[in-house]
Fold these 2 entries.
Entry 1:
Amino acid sequence: MIYLTLFLTFLKIGAISFGGGYGMISIIRESVLSNGWMTEPELLNFIAVAESTPGPIAINMATFIGSSQGGIFGAFLATLGVVLPSFLVIWLIAAVAKNLLKLAGVQAALDGIRPCIVGMILATAATMLLTALLGLKTVNSAFAFDGKSALILALLCVVSFAFQKWKKRSISPILLILFSGVLGVILFR
Amino acid sequence: MRRMLDLFLTMLKIGLFTFGGGFAMIALLEGELIGKKGWITNEEFIDMVVIAESTPGPIAINAATYVGYRLGKLPGALLATLGICIPSFVIIYIISLFFNAFLAIAWVAAAFRGIQICVILLILSAGFKMLKKMRKTAFSITILVLTFLAMLVFGLFAVSFSSIFSFS
């Protein structure tokens, strides 16, 4: 039953992910790959779309994955699933437990959760990088170094570093995505 | 009633015009809710951001639900959350209908091979930004390193595992 699976998967993602859209990527990646809903390149394509369209990244991803697996009803259920835990938790806090976050136990738990999220995001990015640059799809597969992808990565790093030095602020993700798209057309066409 | 409609439309606008997720949205919310509308005070806004960041789920949804509740109890929370979700939902649903056909064009597929690298870089820099903001103690660094190593090792195994399943 794809509808139930979509709803429950995104309910879980909404309930256990901290730190906003990028904090969710580790859990979304794990769910999407293990259910066979998308491949890693497909997921990366879509994160680019979610980043370049307005709205919260988490909602964009839920809607897209839901729609690709179960049409409009799937999109609706996945989005509902990802929103519901937030809504209930915040409602609870705003209505009855305004001081919940000031409790020592809650703060201690968050002190443990935050570094865990940062570790998860960094590990996810590192895994994706290894897969993209070395074609390292499984532990025992052969290395196949992808020079063009490495060149793109190097150029993107140079450009965002130069932009930071020159403009004193980070480059907008959309600008960087557009630039990488142009590089992709030049190198992979 | 007018205020409820105003709340809904404001959230709809924020959902339609923010790019890049929660943190970008917080800047816009600040401008709208404190500056233009004067609906909540600065202190209350800071409280709200802390709550939105410390609870599970998308930051934008957390913030919208909280503001909605402060302004109009449960109906306000529902309207605000609905408002912030609708633009995303509609835009992405339409894109999802055409995305595969779009990717079938050769130069688009080539562009996306470059974009995939860029997305990895964006995720990596989001991770580093959070690392910079994190309070660094022996405890937090230990948790970070252990999580990182466990995820990396199991991540590579998990991919091999799921690819075995897809072949069988």
Note: The CA atoms of residues 15 and 85 of chain A lie 5 Å apart.
Entry 2:
Amino acid sequence: MAIVELRQVTFRYPDAEEPALSGVTASILEGDFVVLAGPSGSGKSTLLRLLKREVSPGGTLSGTILLERRKIESWPAREAASAVGLVMQHPENQLVVDTVEHELAFGMENFGLERSAMRRRMAEMAGFFGLEPLLARRSDELSGGQKQTVNLASVLMLQPRLLLLDEPLAQLDPLAARELLGMLKRLNDEWGITVVMSEHRIDDLLPIADRVIRLERGSAVFDGTPRAYAAEAWRRQDPAWIESLPAVTRWALEEAGRATSIRTAQEKPAWMGTLSGEARRFMDAERRNDGGPTEEPEEPEEPEEPEEPEEPEEPEEPEEPEEPEEPEEPEEPEEPEPMPSFLPLSVKEARAHPAIRDAAAHAAPAAKPPASEAKPLLQANGLFFAYDKNSPAVLRGLEWTVRQGDRIALFGGNGSGKSTLLQLLAGLREPQRGEVRLEGVKLSRLPTQARFSRIGYLAQNPLLHFVHDTLREDLLHAASRVGSPSPADEVGRMADRLGLSGLLGLHPHDLSGGERQLGALALALLGRPQLLLLDEPTKGVDALAKKRLAGHLEEVHRAGVTLVMATHDVEFASRYANRCSLLFQGEIVADGEPEAFFRGNLFYTTPLHRLLHHAHDPKPAEEGAVQR
Amino acid sequence: MSEGFGLRSLHPSVLLLYYAGGITFGMLLFHPVLLLSGWAACLIVNGHLDGGREWRSWSLPMLGAFVALILVNPLISHRGRTVLYYMGDIPITLESVVYGATMASSLLGLLTLFVSYRILMTEHKFLFLFARFSPKAALLAMMAAGMVPRLRRRLKELMLVQKTRGIAVSEGTVTQRARNGARLVGALLSWSLEDALQTADSMQARGYGTGTRSSYPAFRFGPRDAWTAGGLFAAAGIAFTLWANGHGYLTIYPRLESFSLSKGDVGALAAYLVFLLMPLGWEWRDRTTWRSLNFGK
Amino acid sequence: MNLLRRKINPKLLVIPIAIIYLVLAYVSLTRGNALLIGIVLVLLSMIPFVWRFERRQRQARELVLIAVMAAVATVSRIPFAALLPNFTPVTFIVILSGVVFGAEAGWMVGAVTGLVSNFFLGQGPWTPWQMFAWGMAGFTAGLFAHRNPSRRRRLPLLLFGAAWGYLYGWILNVTVALDVGVREQTWSSVLAVYSLGLPFETVHAAANVFFLVVFAPSWIKLLERYRRKYGALQRTDSGSADMEGSAHGQRTAAE
């Protein structure tokens, strides 16, 4: 039974020219786990908010939204509020009252529940989420992941049948995001709650979702299974689509593409012989497809037909009896599928496949040139730092050198002190022991202004950098502070360089996450820094904005600025860093060039390296090579 | 030493009764001997709660206020028959010195009482009581209390990061610093207002405004509370009756009467002390149980 | 006991308790002790405001807005801790809340600031006085300039802020002043008490004037922007509860 039905839903914000949603038709089945994909501004949030009447935006709506076969606007207020739950992006902003226990009870209080009923639900939910030890705590003391868990639990207290999540993972670190995702999966599996979740990084979601709906400029351009989504993305060859796939899938697809080109060069590559029948068949399909247009008209999934059942593929699953080595082979697209027929969505699936495994063995990633032994720019000698006398030390005798021209990615667990370290290196905080030297001069000896303009610092939350009413005013202030002769021109040039020209008149709060990040970068660059310290520059930023940011950082680096970024984003680091360091228990425990670093790790590494980890013979010598 | 033990186990309404009574008598009974005894009783209560740690941390400002009141009163008030000496042409009278001292003892007792109030009447308990009188205002207070730590953290981050841009309260002239400080607060304000729109959405998404609310926090009013409340009422009744009959306060003006306590004064003092110390009985009882269960540990 | 408790609406207890305390304070006053009367009157003065606040359904946005203003006012003293004592923008923020959001909201912001800041700094006998003083600062600011744009200009606001710098201190010292006044029966003694606090209050007034002169126009603009943003709740759907809700929202905005 469909829990939600959208019929020709079109929605326009009061002053907007383009509708935010146009003619969206879809139906969501009870118990489905649906992922809403699409770039920023494609209407994902609008769609979710239209399904949650209490927070629906103002504007003109046409079409019908049916919730459990009743028009959504005809539901009584209380029933509507409890039937649909909503969790939003920022964990902190959704917390209403002071303690965890009261936060969980807040929704039930709104429904005027009896105290005994509230206690009972509280007991159940706290048990399910393991929140008992946190109940008496102030919600402000929790980590981001815990806060989001509290938000989720407090929504579930009302026992919704449909759970909407608007980018709930964007502000979390990968570990917390994965934990929350696991909980959502459990809720979906065990309680049968229908989940509709939007996210711009959907790579972790694809393996667990039942369905993907992709919105682009307000229209639903795809509606089908995750595997069909991956196939469609490949067929389209649209970078925006491909970016949204899991790294492993992307890699497998690219590998397949490479195989095609190799095959055209020499009739049969050496490793073809080892291919399984299934992979061979996919190669054959590729061959048939060779030279043909990328857009295949006989494509079985038409995005315009969202009702198209994807399920018929499933019965084909137990085929290929000649493949005893891959019993858990997941469902495949149909044979006439001109796409690569094998689309792994996770490392496990990829590893199970011999063709991929073999290809992995041959496809050693191109090694980047090792970091040069350039002269040291910034040196940390025996840094020791604690926030106060009674709290444990964050940094314990840390030694580290940043060399001219480095592009360092700094890894470390949550609360390992990455942010603190960057703040010490930027001269924002003073270490209790030890010193930081910039080109041999102690930071504390440098005059404040010189220190802060030679070392640019970008905080985790870019909003912290803005205090004026428009971006222009903030930039002008920064430009005149460093004594620019004509601040206005300087600001204009900087805005052009970073593509911010059209945004100068806006309030910083009205910028998107990526734009704020670039704005903060512009502020730092106006000081003409030698060194840029970036704290989690990719947090909460969508793939496209990430790419733009990376491009600008690369350009900045070419202009001679050394970069250090603390990050959880392993993929971003693997693409753009030339040195990786790991902070653990207040010290740098691993430091080296990325390939060796990632190959030696299982956790702080890309899915791709995880896949390759076993394919390559794990030489113990590599671990030594990582040390510096 | 957690909730549910001794004094901390009492129902918030009993605590409210205790503090309302303590404050009222601290103001009604106007006799230095009674007030200082009451102060000593409050100290004993504090000692039982946390070994007097909290009181010590507040002792300096309290002492300051105490001394200031004693010194200032004779300078301002020149009533009284017994002139001790003249400061210039300002007469310093014995009456106003004693009055100042009594007033200061009253203040000292009150402030000490509030130290234990901070320990016993947690935010949680206070808001529970407040919500019974005014649920909406209590919710509002709770929301603001939930925001404060978050905003404080953000403001500190802002102060740290804005140092890099020279917007700091530790740099420049006083005017410049004040300007910078206000700029930081302004940035925090617009940021918080922006974010709070989501908080409001989150409230509505969870059914706020769909009808009458109920209240989750629960404290059980047990026999222990009933006994304590009864005892407090009895002691307060006695002290009050004596006060109404003219006992328990010192006549200072126009001429200071003797400090010696009449029978009625002693009765009022006893009732007042009983009122202040009675809840400690639960503290002693629970400690004894604790000791006997834990082999004297 | 439980049965008894369930039958009594705690709100109804307020009236007899208030009467008892008024009598007590009066008798005490006739005996020359004026300590109680002030605090009793201050607590009583809050009842009408709280009662008015309780009377109608409050929109989520309305609550959130007041809570944010109070929380920001509470933390606003942090950057100024190192500057001059008493030089804080707390009163300034309360006054602007009253100016932009109206007298009722102004009172709420002020009173909640007084209450909540003491959650963190420590409650004391001063709490009701601070709630009253800030509450009245917000309330009178609303009466003074909420509907009257000409009074939102710098000069009237400056005078208003300076006045509240002194009034605030005087309200907090009412107990002592009342006590001395009742004893001495002269105004000069009251003035003497108040003159002792004059330096502090002058700093406070100077802070108010400074912030109002330098920041009032831009902050009023900012708060007006958010008043519209919070008030403009035009829900698309026609669920009856929601329509009612948005009507409330509009009214709040208009107030």
Note: Chain A touches chain B through 63 residues (CB under 8 Å).
